Fold:
Amino acid sequence: MNIKVLKDYEELSQTASSYIEHQVKKNPQSVLGLATGGTPLGTYKQVVQSYQSQGIDYSGVSSLNLDEYVGLDKNDPQSYHYFMKEHLFDHINIQDEHTFIPNGKTESLFEECKRYEGIIDEIGPPDLQILGIGENGHIGFNEPDTSFESMTHIVDLEVSTRQANARFFNSFDDVPKQAITMGIGSILKSKQIILLASGERKAEAIKRLLQGPVDEQFPASALHHHNQVTLLVDQASYQLIEKE
Ligand code: F6R
Structure:
């Protein structure tokens, strides 16, 4: 695992966006694996800025998002569909029909999981997958104890995950209890992975990722089974490593 320690969130976001831009310039038909949440917001802002200043062409790019809440319509402002449009897709020239996100509001979630994994295999795997990390080590919404071989599936979100994400909702009770997520096995199909972590809140998780055992209790540890992973961390999230 390559590790890059950046000064702060700003530098982390710039570095992450430069990975995306480099990939798209190298291959204008790239498939990007994208994450939501607070961490990649700065990255997407940078991507939009470089798109505007340098005219990087996303018209041939496809994207596959990691996850979506169960029960939220794609026009719901809390949905990840909405998030991606608001923070990225509406501001670059990616084609709507090239963007893929699981559908959390469907009659058969089981069928949706199969359909989404099929899309990953058909248009993917991602050339570059962006990941954040949960305080409990989740990647995508793969909570502790998820099989490293898992494909797209439905998860019951941990209370701690719902609490961490409650900041995006009016109240904790509004946070959905389930999500549909690419599995750990699906994520590991990606050709290259960059995992972003910022802030003191993530310091324990980064310590466990780098110095703890590889086991299903800590989903992100599966990344040690992939040979093209780069960890982009800021000093705050890396602080427990530096102290040793
Ligand atoms: C979001 C996702 C999650 C987040 C993680 C960290 O698509 O897959 O794994 O990356 O929950 O979230 P933030 O960045 O809000 O701390």
User: Anything to note?
Assistant: Residues 127 and 191 are 5 Å apart (CA to CA). The helical segments are 9-26, 41-54, 80-87, 109-123, 159-165, 184-188, 203-211, 235-242. The chain has a mean pLDDT of 96.
